[in-house]
Amino acid sequence: MDTMTGRVRGLARWETLLLLIIVALVVIGTAVSPVFLTTRNVPNLIVAVIEVSIMALPMTLIIISGEIDLSVESMAGLACALLGVLSIAGVPLEAAIPVALVVGAIGGLFNGVLVTVFGLPSLVVTLGTLALYRGLALAILGSEGVSGFADWFTTFGFGTIPGTPVPWPAVLFIALAIVLGLVLHGTWWGRQIYATGKNNAAARFSGVRVARLKLVLFMLSGTVAALAGIILTARFASARADIGQGLTLTVVTIVLLGGVNIFGGRGTILGVVLAAIVLALLGNILRLTNVSAEIQSIAVGLLLIVSVVLPNIAHQLRSGLSRPGGGRLSVASAGAGEVEA
């Protein structure tokens, strides 16, 4: 009986379900289009979600800590605008890119200060800076686009690793996922993130420097959002102030679809990586079957709803099976965090 319960609990894991969904999508994609798994299509599949997937990684840590950052798409646009302005001024990309990353860190720090020092809700703060950073991008660059970037830069944006169909930006995503995964699941700092999201006050009384922790997370989010803006600039070979509009919804969808509890305290980097793959496969299948952009938007919205509801049901199932007698579920546990280090 214990063995059977353990197997059921293993199948109930959200990551396992995501793996099954990935397998199903690969089968469906292969059936609906002969080019689905070809070297011509795989780069398109990856680059369509690479920037949002990169931004989703630090967003995972922020949401696990009990906060949220809705300004990431505007910070990506601001970084893109900065590259355009600095390019016009004759500043080489080797110097402009670090400037954009520093501005991203400063923007994240500003969000963090408003949340931790002034005690404002991160939802409200980052909604405000969502508009603020986009306004700054438009103010410094206007509505015009800037092109003519160096060949090595644009090649990085849409080129692939020689001999493979893997785009260069995917290397950054993989490296960032490994580093943040190790930090979140293998270090004391990661355990502090979980503890903070599960119970902010208790974490503070336990000696966790909650304010400093959240400041670092917001700075990381801003920096990585700026990095995503740089990648977008390289991929489109053009800098525009309005680049990245509407990406925040997709970023949050990936994080929640990955099993991260919107209330904090629970989630894994692996789940978010798998969710990014699910979204990439689904979006590519919809495009290959000529599904309209409106229907694709509806699909993302439905995924966001499903990603909030189903992980909580799965968590209740695991919690019920872990109790003596199993099977009894508690509605109150739906919003409770569970540390999964």
Task: Based on the model shown, name its key terms.
disordered N terminus, mainly alpha, 15 helices, 341 residues, ABC transporter involved in vitamin B12 uptake, BtuC
Short structural summary:
Helix content is 72%, strand content 0%.
What features would you describe in this structure?
This protein is mainly α. It has a single domain (2-323), classed as ABC transporter involved in vitamin B12 uptake, BtuC (Orthogonal Bundle). The chain is 72% helix and 0% strand. The chain is built from 15 helices and no strands. The chain has helices at residues 2-12, 14-32, 42-47, 50-64, 72-88, 93-116, 122-141, 151-158, 168-186, 188-198, 200-205, 210-236, 247-257, 269-288, 293-322. The longest helix is centred in the C-terminal third of the chain and has 30 residues, at 293-322. The chain is globular and about 60 Å long. The two termini are 27 Å apart. The relative contact order is 0.19. Residues 1-8 and 326-341 have low confidence and may be disordered.
| Order of helix and strand elements from N to C terminus | HHHHHHHHHHHHHHH
Structural class per helix/strand content? mainly alpha
> Which percent band covers the strand fraction?
under 5%
> What is the domain tally?
1
Could you say which overall geometry the principal axes of the C-alpha atoms support? globular
> Radius of gyration, rounded?
21 Å
Look up the CATH topology. Answer: ABC transporter involved in vitamin B12 uptake, BtuC
Number of strands: 0
Query: How far apart lie the N and C ends?
Result: 27 Å
CATH class: Mainly Alpha
Distinct helical segment count: 15
The CATH architecture can be named as: Orthogonal Bundle
Mean pLDDT over the full residue set: 89
In terms of quaternary structure, the protein is single chain
Q: What is the makeup of the main sheet?
A: none
| Helical residue percent band | over 70%
